User: What shape does this take?
Amino acid sequence: MTGHRSFFLDEALDGYVQAHSPAVDDVQQSLIGATAALGPLARMQVAPDQAAFLAVLVAAVRPSFAVEVGTFTGFSSLAIARALPAVGRLLCCDVSTEWTDIARRHWAMAGVDDRIDLVVAPALETLRALPAEQHVDFAFLDADKTGYLAYYEELVPRLSPHALIAVDNVLWSGRVLDAGAEDADTVALRAFNDHVIADDRVTSVLLSVGDGVNLIRLA
Ligand SMILES: C[S@@+](CC[C@H](N)C(=O)[O-])C[C@H]1O[C@@H](n2cnc3c(N)ncnc32)[C@H](O)[C@@H]1O
Assistant: This one.
């Protein structure tokens, strides 16, 4: 298991949540171990219950084309890719070759590497380069927080009617409410959440899963 848990749960309740979420399999366990070897950065990896949540969303939406912005070592993308329908493809965006090499290894171990396209480049460039006719059926945003609004604005016009966008870390360990927190990430996350709830094009719900997930669909 990962060492981290939802910021909003105590250890006992988190244990209960994990015990009532799908068990971690060998590939996930290997990925947790490989990521833990990176040291404190391993905190960036989504928790198993959140990966299971993404998998449930993807299985319900049945995306032909899914996008992940912020892949790191691949835990969330592994869950998304495994839940895709047979025709589904996942575009993964990240700037790190070192971290995504770990992801690639584990996608291959799980037999899902043939349904994933990884682009190592700033995600905004990758999204802007998508063909005009490319619809997006599912997106998971989990990269630089100051980029969220721009990623969202690239994605919303491309959404298919039943698409979902799941956006991670939107409660930022509670700092969105801390009046003294004026760092760029916190300011960006507050602005992002305010923008989404005021955006008539979409309907959203802010969930306290993990570090907060803003779940968005077309209105
Ligand atoms: C929180 S981690 C993603 C965790 C991942 N979803 C998981 O489940 O393990 C954030 C990732 O965003 C990537 N990133 C940061 N800035 C980026 C950018 N401008 N474009 C693409 N990826 C970026 C980082 O390299 C890092 O791997």
Notes: The chain is about 40% helix and 20% strand. The first strand starts at residue 65 and ends at 69. The mean pLDDT is 95. Strands lie at 65-69, 89-94, 116-120, 136-141, 159-168, 202-207, 213-218.
